[in-house]
Design goal:
- By secondary structure, this protein is of the alpha/beta class.
- The chain is 41% helix and 16% strand.
- It contains 12 helices and 14 strands.
- Strands 1, 2, 3, 4, 9, 10, 11, 12, 13 and 14 form a 10-stranded parallel beta sheet that branches. Strands 5-8 form a two-stranded antiparallel ribbon. A two-stranded antiparallel ribbon has the order 6-7.
- Helix 1 links the parallel strand 1 and strand 2.
């Protein structure tokens, strides 16, 4: 198996203690440097935009019970330059970059090509792993114009927002690969009855639209004349892309433009994971070579201790605290399911569990800092895993 590491940089109270931002970043760099030393392949860093705490002051707060910030990293590329300078071997990745916020898909494509050009000046340039998606929370996109523009778009929003992400994806990937193009060259967005789960949902959209129609054409969310994204000579061989989207049609659509791996969670059903592998074997972009299982990195929580009982108690406490903070209530079934999907125990127990649950060629994004601000404890868990796991 291939072992990566995932960092959340989540600033929320744990046992009444909330580190300040400086401490959070210091802990991150301490753990990232250790991951490099221990041989982790890629350091994936969560990316979050706009304060969850400030958003709670507005109507329809998305995480009203959550204290602190779900993540502090707002710019993977800035962080990557610092981390590359401090490490020797590890690749740096975003999990996940929101290509609809912070200027949209053109701005992100341009920033990545610039970052690659700077990386290409190094003697031993390492890979930049860009995971991209539409963003976890709507409030991060709204200030950038990603919201319903009229009543019928509002009625269609559960479906329309997926088509907007497809529009953003095409613009982003064509920009990354160096196309010269305009918004008129982007595939049109069309709404039709087949996009909706029921006749009632479609009728609701048509009623808001004001007339009957077999389909509705949606105006672009990004309008622009012909553009070319610089630097033109960015070394794309140092880039690997992964799409954070569970819609197979969008995964396939992305691969019509550029090779894109696929993110999946450890809680994703095995059947869905294997079906995605089969689909990508057929649809993965030819320029990326043959599809391999490591092109689907999977997050997995790790609670490892020399004492099995202590490891299970750590997992139970961390997950209870997190879900209570996120939702304000505790669901025992949800907690138990989360514990069962994590890697919990001593090295022997985790080794056995990994052999049962994962394919020998899988790529895991190990998550050690989950709801834990004790940097020494997190680092000790990392050492225990990398020095004792043989999968």
């Amino acid at each position: 198996m291939k072992f990566d590491i995932f960092f959340s940089i989540c600033q929320t109270p744990v046992d009444g203690y909330t580190p300040d931002e400086k401490t959070m970043f210091q802990n991150f760099f301490s753990q990232a440097l250790l991951a490099d030393e221990l041989g982790a392949s890629t350091a994936w860093v969560a990316e979050t935009h706009l304060s969850c705490q400030i958003q709670k002051r507005n109507p329809q707060a998305v995480v009203p019970e959550f204290q602190g910030e779900i993540g502090l990293n707002t710019d993977l590329l800035q962080l990557a330059h610092v981390l590359f300078a401090k490490t020797k071997n590890i690749n740096i990745g975003s999990a996940i970059m929101n290509i609809q916020s912070n200027g949209g898909p053109i701005a992100h494509a341009e920033a990545i090509r610039m970052a690659l050009s700077l990386r290409g000046l190094e003697q031993n340039p390492r890979r930049l792993e860009i995971g991209f998606a539409s963003g976890r929370f709507p409030f991060s996109n709204i200030p950038y114009g990603i919201h319903p523009r009229n009543t019928w778009e509002e009625a269609a929003w559960p479906v329309l927002k997926g088509k907007i992400f497809q529009e953003a994806t095409e613009i982003f990937l064509r920009g990354i690969r160096g196309d010269i193009f305009a918004s008129k060259d982007i595939r049109e967005k069309i709404l039709a009855r087949s996009d909706f789960r029921s006749d009632q949902d479609w009728e609701k959209v048509l009623k808001a639209y004001g007339k009957n129609a077999d389909q509705i054409k949606i105006d672009p969310y990004w309008n622009f004349d012909q553009i070319g994204i610089i630097p033109f000579e960015a070394p794309l061989e140092h880039l690997r892309l992964t799409i954070g989207c569970h819609d197979l049609a969008t995964q396939i659509y992305a691969n019509t433009f550029y090779p894109c791996g696929v993110f999946n969670l450890s809680i994703t059903p095995t059947k869905q994971i294997e079906e995605t592998h089969q689909a990508m074997m057929k649809h993965y972009h030819k320029d990326g070579g043959p599809w391999s299982r490591d092109l689907m990195p999977r997050t997995v929580l790790v609670f490892i201790d020399k004492d099995r009982k202590k490891a299970r108690q750590k997992a139970q406490n961390a997950l209870e605290n997190y879900w209570k903070a996120l939702e304000g209530t505790l669901d025992p079934a949800k907690i138990q399911n989360a514990v069962d999907n994590a890697l919990v125990g001593d090295a022997e127990e985790i080794n056995d569990e990994m052999q049962k649950r994962f394919h020998k060629d899988d790529r895991l994004m190990l998550w050690f800092d989950f709801n834990n601000h004790n940097n020494d404890e997190v680092c000790e868990s990392m050492r225990l895993f990398f020095e004792n796991i043989n999968a």
